[in-house]
Specification:
Distance between the termini: 73 Å
Strand order of the largest sheet: 3-2-6-7-1-8
Largest sheet: 6 strands, parallel
Structural class: alpha/beta
Shape: globular
Number of strands: 12
Strand content: 5-15%
Length: 684
């Protein structure tokens, strides 16, 4: 059987006896390689319970498990000839006893606990449940979901605001400008390791290269000299009679009290006397260029020497001012965060809760504890001979710590338990790292590869470094564009190159101009919903352009047919990819439907956000509480009762303090049908 280059590389990567570090481009078949490697491990006699496959998401784990069971299930039922062909496609040259291949499906199904194809969080949870006392967790711990975490964070924040933590909260609030603390507390919890201990003011000041005790007085001494107040007072009327720029500078200086210059005045003085961010030398003193030459040689001539000195001191003091401001914010953040994290962790422990980060951190600490790690690894070691890691580019340093601990014994010599020894397989692609907000470190992919390569080398083992460059999913035009776009991307460590498996596959890349936001001069009709984007909205215009382009493609475009020639483009040939489910997502669907283009629509619905559900919720809220005027009004305006805007206004206006329900009952002559239906619902 002859194989193409792409398949040969996949077969090589799936070799069950080799330690392999695989870089796989998008669409190169890495899930197939993972599945084939597990299947080949089982074929060599490895027990299913001795294989650990770690994936990043539950969806990936489920997909891989389904593929594997599908393959093994097919083997169980195929005739000998077809089964030998399938095994040959995997790269198995000696098929041996085909009965073994047919028995693998039953063996995998009957494995106690099932095949270990799971997320790393799930694996760590299993380790903690097996060794709770050693890890210092409750044997009955519960895994927190996002909702529980948010509620607990809000609870801790509320109690701090009313208790001993109020001072730290107020200190942070001086610098915090967001509408709510929820995003901040969530980020603090994600980075809790940096707030585990208290820090002193001197320590924080040292981080910013400030002398201990440096404050406003020291900053003022650095920036101001005797006579600067009089200098500014004398300069203001001169600037006020100059050019437009000088008049603007005089207006800014008017906000300063020249009799008492303070550190808080420095930002204003920097805005007047220093160049801006867009200048050739940003934030440098305007010595020689401010004020204008005419003013310098005219009324401001006696002040210029003193003014140049002031501008120089303002420039020199700016870095210290910024450092002091950052140090104060950092200190406030650390004092609040340390108090918040301490209380948050205490309440989690009291409830027996662990979040996803806890699972990783606790398991990593257990597997690296000098007094316990050897015994825990010995117990775990009896069940793990082969480790496979998927989506390694999104693995965080703490997760790598767990994986490294599990594979530590792999680099200490051969094991007698397995005919194939013990192997490590890691696959990933730094270009596809998207979880940096969860601590993923793309550069760790290369760093850990070098680290494992050195560890295997010490015991005369080889770590093979392979690449899957062929894409089965895209065309040459698209792949060339991706290569060009990523040529200068930092951190990739090498020139990015993709190869297309199907050179004849058509493709095209169009770069559209950015749709600029337009200012709406006139507000829309007052009856329009306040959250309805205008026709001139940038997102609406982009959605309309996309929909129009697709409609034209479907109407006039063609694609190469499988049997040769051309065939018309159908709506099913088009896929629109977006970075996130933004409003543009729904606007494109709406625009396509308006043009009669068949579209699958949203594959995920927010039930509570659907208008029909909102109408029913409003009706139920009124039935539960008849004094809820807003819910009744929303239900009346819905298609459930069909009251128009004018009818609702006439019903509600002029009723004084009476409830809307009472006003509706008094208007039975006009709204009798609505009242009858509501009465039936209330009785029911």
């Amino acid at each position: 059987m002859r194989f193409d280059d792409a398949t040969l590389r996949q077969i090589e990567a799936a070799d069950p006896g080799a330690n392999t570090w695989l870089s796989a481009n998008a669409g190169s078949g890495k899930t197939r390689v993972l599945t084939n490697r597990v299947a080949r491990l089982l074929l060599t006699g490895v027990a299913p319970e001795n294989i650990l496959c770690l994936t990043y998401t539950k969806a990936a784990a489920s997909e891989m498990q389904n593929r594997l069971f599908g393959t093994l299930g097919d083997w169980a039922m195929k005739p000998a000839g077809e089964l030998e062909t399938d095994l040959a496609k995997l790269g198995v040259t000696e098929t041996g006893d085909l009965a073994r291949a047919r028995r693998l499906f039953a063996a995998a199904i009957e494995t106690p606990g099932g095949l270990k194809i799971q997320t790393i969080h799930s694996f760590c949870a299993g380790v903690l449940r097996r060794f709770p006392l050693e890890a210092g967790v409750s044997p009955q711990f519960q895994e927190m979901d996002d909702r529980s975490a948010k509620l607990l964070q809000a609870e801790v924040l509320d109690d701090m605001a009313e208790g001993a933590g109020r001072g730290a909260l107020d200190a942070l609030a001086r610098f915090f400008t967001d509408a709510e603390f929820t995003p901040l507390t969530a980020e603090i919890v994600r980075r809790r390791g940096g707030f585990a201990r208290e820090v002193t003011e001197a320590e924080v000041w040292g981080w910013f290269e400030l002398e201990p005790g440096f404050g406003d007085e020291a900053l003022e001494a650095l920036a101001f000299a005797p006579g600067d107040g009089k200098l500014i007072a004398d300069l203001r009327p001169i600037l006020a009679g100059g050019t437009k720029t000088e008049i603007g500078a005089a207006s800014k200086l008017a906000a300063i009290d020249p009799e008492a210059l303070r550190a808080r005045d420095l930002p204003v003085l920097e805005g007047v006397f220093l160049t801006g961010a867009g200048a050739k030398e940003p934030f440098s003193a305007k010595i020689g260029s401010f004020p204008t030459k005419a003013t310098q040689n005219g009324p401001a001539a006696p002040l210029m020497d003193a003014l140049d000195g002031l501008m120089g001191r303002i420039e020199a003091a700016r870095s210290k001012r910024l450092a002091l401001d950052a140090a104060r914010k950092t200190l406030a953040l650390h004092r609040f965060a340390q108090s918040f994290v301490t209380e948050y962790e205490a309440r989690k422990q009291a409830r027996g809760w662990l979040d996803f980060d806890d699972l990783i951190l606790r398991a990593g600490a257990l597997l690296n504890d000098p007094g316990l790690a050897a015994w825990v690894l010995y117990r775990l070691d009896g069940g793990i001979d082969h480790i496979l890691v998927d989506e390694a580019q999104d693995t965080s340093p703490d997760q790598w710590r767990v994986i490294e601990s599990l594979a530590r014994e792999f680099t200490t010599g051969e094991s007698a338990r397995s005919e194939q020894g013990r192997t490590l397989f890691v696959v990933g692609d730094m270009k596809q790292s998207i979880y940096s907000f969860q601590g993923a470190d793309p550069s760790g992919f290369t760093r850990m590869r070098d680290q494992f390569e050195g560890a295997f080398g010490q015991v005369q083992k080889k770590l093979g470094k392979l690449e899957l460059e062929y894409s089965f999913r895209s065309s040459r035009a698209v792949l060339d564009f991706v290569d060009h776009a990523l040529e200068t991307a930092p951190g990739l460590g090498r020139a990015v190159k993709h190869k297309t498996f199907d050179e004849a596959r058509p493709g095209r890349v169009d770069l559209w101009p950015v749709v600029e936001k337009e200012e709406t001069a006139e507000p829309g009709p007052w009856t329009d919903p306040v959250d309805l984007p205008a026709e001139t909205d940038a997102g609406v215009r982009l959605a309309e352009t996309i929909a129009e382009t697709i409609a034209e493609m479907v109407e006039t475009g063609t694609l190469p047919a499988k049997g040769g020639g051309l065939r018309p483009i159908t709506p099913g040939d088009v896929m629109v990819l977006l970075r996130r489910r933004s409003p543009l997502f729904h606007q494109i669907i709406r625009a396509l439907k308006a043009r009669g283009v068949a579209v699958a629509g949203a594959d995920r619905l927010r039930i509570g956000g659907e208008l029909a559900v909102k109408d029913l919720t409003a009706l139920l809220a009124f039935l539960a509480t008849q004094e809820d005027d807003l819910s009744l009004a929303a239900a009346l305006r819905s298609p459930l009762f069909g009251l128009d805007e004018d009818g609702l206004f006439r019903l509600a206006h002029g009723r004084g303090k009476a409830y809307l329900w009472n006003a509706l009952r008094e208007a039975r002559a006009t709204h009798g049908e609505i009242l009858d239906r509501l009465d039936d619902l209330r009785d029911w």
